[in-house]
Design goal:
Length: 289
Amino acid sequence: MTTAALEPRAGRRCQSVLNTLHATSYFAPELGTELAALGVTHPRAVNFAVRAAALGPVGAGAVTATFYNYKHDLVARHIPAVWTIASPEDVLAARARAVDASLRRLLGEEAVTSREMAEAARLALRATEACSRSARPLYSAHADLPVPEEPHLACFHAATLLREHRGDGHLAVLTAAGLDGLEAVVTHTATGKGMTPKWVRATRGWTQEDWDAASARLRERGLLDDAGELTQAGIALREEIESETDRLDRAPYEHLGAEAVARLTELGAGFARAAAMAGAFPADLIGKG
């Protein structure tokens, strides 16, 4: 019996749709409601707390390092102060309640309890069996958390593991490419696939002056032109970054196998599309302007 070979970008496509499902949680009003009940009300504090909680009550330095593209001054305004308001354990429990409620709202009860959701959870969890803890702090911290019993929460958990596994590897590649956190965001935005400058500044703490300075550094390297578009060298660097990230993140999808990866991508895309159509994301989130 011949086993189909895994296409070079198959893992990237699979993780992308699962990441879309994971990312719905950051924009869900249920998350703000649950954290507010704990006393955490500032949107940035909510974001830092829910993503960093698996690490324990860490300081600002650890969060800035593992998140990479946030301005340290912004992180330090909320971390570690947030842990005096709510413990990481309470934050994780609140996130689970918010994810449960938001997925039920966005996808509907039928989808949440469907065979397809259970199948997606099984496949995604199987892929995580081949993830590596080495030099992957956010993945490794989340891998220590128990797998939820309900399929939609198990699917979210697995999507989180695969997201952070790729993300940790991606940061190593960005560092090797000589891009700091803001330069990485500026070049990603210039591809048209990243967050708009408006959303970067609103959520990451960077000012227009910071953005302009980073753009100037990138122009000096020949990666951006005067209009803020990627040059041929910039386009090549971004593709090299993604390809190297694919290489570092290949093991989970090779472990799953090409046919199962294709099936998981199909299932994940269906759920992600339904969530987006239900208004999971702001209309102006992605783009260059």
